[in-house]
Amino acid sequence: QVQLVESGGDSVQAGQSLTLSCAVSKLSFTAYSAAWFRQAPGKEREGGAVIDPDTTKTHGVAVKRRFTISRDNAGNTLYLQMNSLKSEDSGMYYCDLGYYSRARGSLYSDKYTYWGQGTRVDVSS
Fold it and tell me: For the chain, which residues score pLDDT lower than 70?
């Protein structure tokens, strides 16, 4: 059974940094584009960033120049480095995987097949 386990969420002050991790198991990680989505209370799911197996990256407008997505293909792990956090970055953060031919460069959640339980980020101003 495919497993995606997110970690690293925390409560921080605005301006601080966090690094999220997503450990992936039971599938061929290098066949998948991997993305971070987030959802704030009462709001729709929002695509943050995606990284393809060849490490091509796409960052959403809301997080560009503050967040950086990366992946360790040998270690089957996805990361999100979040700098200069703002209160509007608060929410649940989910790691999603979509087969490369379908999800390549996409920040639309319907392109993704697997996702984890999420990790919570709270940013206070």
Answer: none
Beta bridge partners of 18: 82
Distance CA(81)–CA(71), nearest Å, equals 11
Residue type, 46: E
Measured between alpha carbons, how far is 30 from 97 in angstroms, rounded to an integer? 10
Three-state DSSP at 101 gives helix
Q: In terms of residues, how long is the chain? A: 125
pLDDT score of 89: 97
Tokens of 80: 């999100």
Q: What is the DSSP string of 96-109?
A: EEEEHHHHTT---G
Pairing of strands 3-7, 18-25: antiparallel
**89 touches 123 (CB < 8 A):** yes
> What's 21's DSSP letter?
E
Q: Using CA atoms, how far apart are residues 115 and 17, in angstroms rounded to an integer? A: 24
Q: How far apart are the two ends of the chain, measured CA to CA in Å?
A: 40
- Rounded to whole angstroms, the Cα distance separating 27 from 123 reads 33
Q: So what's the pLDDT on residue 105?
A: 96
